[in-house]
User: Fold this.
Amino acid sequence: MASVAQENPGTSPTSAKLKLYSYWRSSCSWRVRIALNLKGLPYEYKAVNILQGEHHSEEFTKLNPLQFVPTLVDGDIIVSDSLAILLYLEDKFPEHPLLPDDLHLKAISLQAAALVGSNIQPFQNLAILNLIGEKLGPEERLAWPKHFIEKGFTALEKLLKGVAGKYSVGDQLTLADIFLVPQVFSARRFNVDMSKFPTLNRINQELAELPEFQAALPERQPDAKA
Amino acid sequence: EYTKLNPLRLVPTLVDGDIVVSDSLAILLYLEDKFPEHPLLPDDLHLKAVSLQVAALVGSNIQPFQNLGFLNLIEEKFGPEERLAWPKHFIEKGFTALEKLLKDVAGKYSVGDQLTLADIFLGPQVYNARRFNVDMSKFPTLNRINQELAELPEFQAALPERQPDAKA
Assistant:
């Protein structure tokens, strides 16, 4: 298994090393952290405090006019969006592949990623929740993400039920697993009963054992708050 | 019947013999692998990443907020005015980002002069933007690209109104 590699901003050398602009709590950033760990890629962690609007700062905007977090910087190349970043890493650093060779299984892994990335996470990100809370009140602010997560997980459970092995797709770690873990964490925050999704729950528990996943946890990041 | 084919009950679904794939991005990437002629992604990793970012931006940051199920939910919770306002807001927000992303790499199409996934995701989203009264003149690069795409027979044949199930 690839070794965990992450260095603190203060002590890391400069040069062509990858840089990841990340927010400790962002599930999208979390996905990229997992992938970098699984591929054994050292990177410099650059914290961007989304709560304080640092992604709108002049400095960050200069780097990435899209103002998106996570952002990966690889020399001159700047990539936003966790899925685009992960597919970039797959091409650029083909060791420790994160997608199956088999086209059917590959498609399933990508479907799982898309299900989480397009059908679940967008409906529970901070901006949306604030909007819902503001317009409809605090109860809706909790009910809304729970609804979308449960709907998405129902589909994901069906998708993976027939192909899961130790992990989402057989016994190989793939993008499906990388997208799953942060989403299950969110699910718990919004009081989703994970026992309704036994396949997802079991896979998540397996993944939680892995050092590469543990090192990517929000609470272990340099910008984590107590 | 549809659920038996695809328990996820999502549309679109592609069937290739025994293989069933949902989600437009997963389907497109499957097609890229299985049928490598007429590639829809650049070889250059940077440009490929730009094209995929467009696809992801549209697919995750814009389209989910204007699909039918979501709009019905918005109308139910907030009323009919919000049903128009929400998609417009998300499309404009997303297009603002897309305009920045493509400004410097666009050629004839989104990424240089090669047709890529970015164009495939852009076309339908601009079509929908107009339905929700988005002023496309605010996004000159996207508008220009979209007009180029509209000339292509492959894009024209894919238009909603040309499909067998289109209603007058």
